[in-house]
Amino acid sequence: MNQSRAIWAVSGVLLAITVFYMCRKKPAPAQASARVARSAPSIAWKFQNDRTTFATITLGPDGTVYAGSNQGVFAISPLGKLKWHAQYGGISYTALGPDGTLYAASMYGFAFGVSPDGQVNWKPGYGLIGFHAPPAVSPGAVLYANTTSDLYAFEPGSTTAAWSQNTFRAGAIAANSSLPGTATVGQNSAASPVIYSDDSIALPRQHWVTMFDKDGTPAWSVEVTPGELGAAALGEDGTTYTSDGSAVYAVDRDGTMGWKYAASAGTCCVGSPATDMDGTVYFAGGHSLSALRRDGRLNWSVSSKHAFATGPAVVADGSIYLGATDGLVAFGPDGTEEWLAASPSALTTPAIFADGTAYYVCGYIWVCAVQGINSPLMKSSWPRIYHDSANTGNILTQF
């Protein structure tokens, strides 16, 4: 009996020692990361239509997904079902107006509007050189920048331009020419206008960023690069952020150069920069994501195995989403990769609804929806290309 008690006593001691060391190896709850790891979301649905190539996604306040394509505009329900199809204008890039009209810019040079029930209800009849970006929209104006030369402003519903400006054509110095005659013929722009809080307008075009008053009067132009500028983002203080494929530039509200960040080879720039609530500026390269502080200093930059096809979208929980050749990729605020929603190539920056569902063109012939993210766009000055998921290009648009 004494021997049995001794064995049990020794066993108890050994068990206590084992538990003690196991507990020491287990991290305390206070040491756990503040961000809870999430499982990767997946594709909820894919929408396809025969012989259709999609170009852009615009979201309505009721969750309707408007997809511009080579066969006009498709309206798709949040469940992935076709609501209507407006076949007009060829490959179209769209933005939603405050009255529910969907304004479209076509690669064929058509500007047109589609009503909420799918009727083409506005055709100003201008035969313009083609577009590669959506218009910018404010309550009082719809602004179209075509690919080679001109910026047009229409009052909603009017078929006559309120004003226009030549912003490109070499040697065409005239009363409505806003760039010098050294502008180069033959370069195409894919940049949309961006609208400030006072309805003034900035447009990156060729080497310049140009500012217009809301009536179209040129305010200033600043030459920022010998290269060609892409899409712009706005800071809350009115700073314009844009890039030329090798550097990111900040132009102050008064037209003076703020700073230039010369990126490492291959790390800049796809799509548009984006900003978060702290004023951090994010941009993507072919296989990289970088974050700049307000003063243009590098905060961090990470390399990725993913090949990015879009610029970033910043969501409310601080994550950054990018479209890549293998799907939609999410990174944390420190650049740590969080998840991949695998899909055909994600070719447009995700448009994100209030419930966190992300929509994008994938593989050219589909519209993809990713659910289960549960984080809407961050309410920063410019969380994604064209500012918001309605593509308005207006810093005051509510979302």
Please state the structural category.
mainly beta
**Major sheet strand order:** 1-32-31-30
| Amount of helix | under 10%
Q: Kindly report the average pLDDT value.
A: 87
Q: Determine the strand fraction and express it as a percent band.
A: 35-45%
Shape verdict? globular
**What about the largest sheet?**
4 strands, antiparallel
The oligomerization state is: single chain
Overall radius of gyration: 25 Å
Explain this structure.
Helices cover 6% and strands 37% of the residues. 46% of the residues are buried. Residues 1-37 have low confidence and may be disordered. The chain is built from one helix and 32 strands. It is globular, with a radius of gyration of 25 Å. By secondary structure, it is mostly beta strands.
Short description:
Helix content is 6%, strand content 37%. The protein contains one helix and 32 strands. The longest helix has 24 residues.
